[in-house]
Structures are given as C-alpha cells and as structure tokens.
Specification:
about 240 residues; 9 helices; globular
C-alpha cells in the first residue's frame, strides 16, 4: 500500500490527474487504545485527510461476539535447572565480536533480546536465538523494508549474513548439548505441559501461542518442534 501511494497516488495529486480508486479492507483502522470516541474520531479524520479516502462500514453486517473462557496458568519464576554463567559470558563476548558491525542502539537491542530469550526459554532458546534467530529477525525486517527503502534492506541483509556466519561457529562451541540443551524455564515447562495435555486429548488440536517480543518467536518455534515434531509454524 505504501508503494502504491508513493508511485501512483501522490504524483496524481500533484498533477491533479484522475486517481485510481482503491478499496482497502481492515478489521481496525487504528492501533492502540483510546480514552474516548472523540480521540478515535480525530484519528479517523486525520487518516481520511492523509489518504484522500473515506471510511465506511458495509450495511447489514452482524456483530460477532465469541464466548471466551480464560484460565490463569501459574508457574514459579526461574529455571528448572541451573543455568551456566558461561553461556551468558559467551553471549556477551559475541556481542563484543560484532560491535564494529552494529550501531550502539542495535547492540543494546541485541543484548536486551538475548537476556529476554534466556529468561523466557532458558539455555536452549538462547543458543538457537544466536545461532539462527537473530539472523532470521534481521532478514524479516530486510524484507519489510525492501519495498520502500532499498538501502536499509541491503544493510539489514548484510548484518544478517555476517551474524549468522559469526555466531554459528561460536554457538556450536558452547557446552555439550546433551547435558545442557534442555535446561528450560518453568514457564516453558508449563507451556509444554499444556501442549502435551492438549495433544493427548486430541492429536489434531490446534492453537495459537502469542509472545510479547519478536525475539522469542523463532527460538520458541524451534523448541516446540524439537519436542513434538514439525507441528508449529510462526508469523512475525
């Protein structure tokens, strides 16, 4: 949509030529929460002005209200097994090794993401995060930028290639996987209990696991598939 606006609509507005009419469908035109209907109305009007568009709701639509049942899942914080400080030190050493390739903001993000993955998933998740996850996230961002910022996309692809080459060699030199690869958090153990129970009741059951940060997506997908076989995909 951004590319269409840039290539077709904006030049047509400047030259005052007739513009194509585009139908865009969305469940919600605004992101986030609003304290009042007036705030939402202002966002709607601002978007209509910027896009030279009009919002409308088709007549005859029925509101669907699903029956929701929430179950609170409790777990104790921490890990089921002792995690080694060596893993965290190696993680920090890899950040030092790539310092010349990333700016300070990106390095802080990498450090924070690594700590978050380790806290949420344990050592196995941290290892996969560095071995593949970081590069996959950078490649996904590069693809998102490709349509309208070729330079940024190319830089992200270069970073992804560099960090994959650098970290794969380092991560495989970490402690023996057979001894430490399944040191996992209590939170992850609880998720596995829920998945195991669901699959025991119905092997064709389906579900969605939401995460709060994208850094967890690829490691968690890897760990689920490693435990249960290829049953899980992911969307960034």
């Amino acid at each position: 949509m951004a590319q269409i606006c840039d290539d077709v609509l904006h030049p047509a507005f400047v030259s005052q030529e007739s513009c194509p009419r585009i139908l865009g469908l969305t469940a919600s035109f605004a992101h986030g929460a609003f304290s009042s209907h007036e705030d939402l109305r202002r966002v709607k009007e601002r978007l209509e002005s910027r896009m030279h568009a009009v919002f409308f709701v088709p007549s005859g639509t029925k509101k669907y209200t699903a029956t929701k049942e929430f179950v609170k899942v409790c777990f104790s914080p921490g890990h089921t097994a002792c995690t080694t400080e060596a893993d965290k030190k190696l993680c920090m050493s890899m950040i030092e090794d790539i310092r010349d390739t990333f700016d300070a903001k990106s390095l802080r993000r990498l450090s924070n993401d690594s700590n978050f993955v380790w806290e949420q998933l344990g050592v196995a998740g941290l290892r996969y995060h560095w071995r593949e996850g970081v590069s996959l996230i950078l490649e996904a961002k590069a693809q998102a930028f490709a349509a309208y910022h070729e330079g940024k996309s190319w830089a992200l692809k270069k970073q992804a290639s560099f960090i994959r080459h650098k970290t794969q060699e380092e991560v495989y030199n970490w402690a023996d996987d057979k001894k430490n690869n399944w040191q996992q958090t209590n939170k992850l153990s609880k998720l596995f209990q829920i998945l195991s129970h669901s699959l025991e009741e119905n092997k064709t059951s389906k579900g969605i696991v939401f995460v709060s940060q994208c850094s967890v997506v690829y490691p968690l997908t890897y760990l689920i598939n490693k435990k249960y076989g290829p049953i899980c995909g992911c969307v960034m």
